[in-house]
Amino acid sequence: MSRLRIYDDTIADVPRSTHAEHADITRELAKVGVRFEQWEASQPVVPGASQDEVIAAYRSDIDRLMREEGYQAVDVISLRPDNPDRAAFRQKFLNEHTHSEDEVRFFVAGAGQFTLHIEGKVYEVLCESGDLIGVPDRTRHWFDMSESPYFIAIRLFTNKEGWVAEFTGDDIAERFPRMAPHPSAGAT
Predict the structure, then answer these.
(1) Does 169 fall in a domain?
(2) Any idea of the CA torsion for 182, 92, 86, 55, to the nearest 10 degrees?
(3) CA 175, 33, 60 angle in degrees (round to 5)?
(4) CA-to-CA distance for 173 and 123, rounded, in angstroms?
(5) What per-residue confidence (pLDDT) applies to 181?
(6) How far is the C-alpha of 158 from the C-alpha of 71, rounded, in Å?
(7) DSSP E strands, 47-96
(8) In angstroms, rounded to a whole number, what is the distance separating the alpha carbons of residues 68 and 66?
(9) Average pLDDT value for residue range 140-146
(10) How high is the pLDDT of residue 161?
């Protein structure tokens, strides 16, 4: 189940609030300029579907976001628990960073945890299948896919070549909870 926990940025052990209803998550994230939506496929997506088939299943929502926000490129990324480079991929995003463009992810399957550091608060967002998150450019955040990652995600970019993490040097991400392995991590 998707979830939002909101913490004071100095107190990592007890959240100020927890939200599990999509409408509540959407409302709370909208207050800080973060997009959170639910999408449904227009056609079934079968295991092993190609990138083109995955994109086609969500084409109307992708096109809408591209029109609204000016995104120019779209692709699909996936990671499974048996990937030999999973620890390196995970470590790459675990420290607080920003980007010069929005970070937009739609979870076709599996899960990932975005944690946002905004105005003295930490917003921990567990995104699962059907969730889209749009983190605005220059927003401090980190991403965790767990020690046993499993996700298939559609990514939208303004300039795919320009998507580079700029690390803040703040150790805040080390003080907040990491993502537990998702139950579907064993899925094939």
Answers:
(1) no
(2) 70
(3) 115
(4) 12
(5) 82
(6) 4
(7) 73-79
(8) 6
(9) 97
(10) 67
The total domain count for the chain is 1
pLDDT above 90: residue 154: yes
Q: Which domain holds residue 109?
A: 3-164
> Mapping DSSP to helix (H, G, I), strand (E, B) and coil, where does residue 96 land?
coil
Q: Are 112 and 95 in contact (CB under 8 A)?
A: no
Buried b (16+ CB within 10 A) or exposed e, 75-85: ebeebbbeeee
Helix (H) or strand (E) holding 90: helix 86-93
Please answer whether residues 28 and 19 qualify as being in contact, where contact means their C-beta atoms are separated by less than 8 angstroms: yes
Distances (CA, A) of 10 to 6, 13, 51, 120: 12, 9, 41, 8
Residue 57: CATH number of its domain? 2.60.120.10
pTM metric for this prediction: 0.94
